[in-house]
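Quick sanity check, Sigma-70 family RNA polymerase sigma factor:
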Amino acid sequence: MTAATETDRALVDRVAKGDRAAVRLLFMRHHARVYRFVARQTGSEMMADDIANEVFLELWRQAPGFEGRSEVSTWLLGIARFKALSLLRKKKEDWIDDEAAAAVPDSADTPEVVTMKEDKAAALRRFIDALPEEHRTVIDLAYYHGQSVTEIGEVLAIPVATVKTRMFYARKKLGEALKAAGYDRGWP
């Protein structure tokens, strides 16, 4: 009998005798099904991956007790369901209760701070728009598009040293403009 035609029950019998190759074969046959089942149950791919792997560890431990009253695939899905429900139940228990939630300090900005930040951001955008094109482009690529100095050099086809020089002068001009307009360098 070849590995492809060997029944799942025969493979479980081999696992019960300590055959690791049989576990690998069952893993290859059933892992995707177990994973998809758990992913649907939990809504989490990461949780599904962890649980699916645990199912096959459980197969290794429980193989000697498998009585064959159901198909191996059904048995594996049953183990997966139990593990998913247990993890979801534990996760609910770990959630914070209402009293504890009320005691957590609110770190959100006050309306005043939000207004100050919006005002400063609008002023900063105006100052950036007033910069010479070569400085404005470097600032825009760095801060609004998250490009590194090297990437900016590639995009603009200029040396990295030139990017750094333009960045230095652009920041200096922005700092001077903010100070002249009465804005503190800090945030907000």
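Posting the structure with no commentary besides this: Residues 9 and 55 are 16 Å apart (CA to CA).
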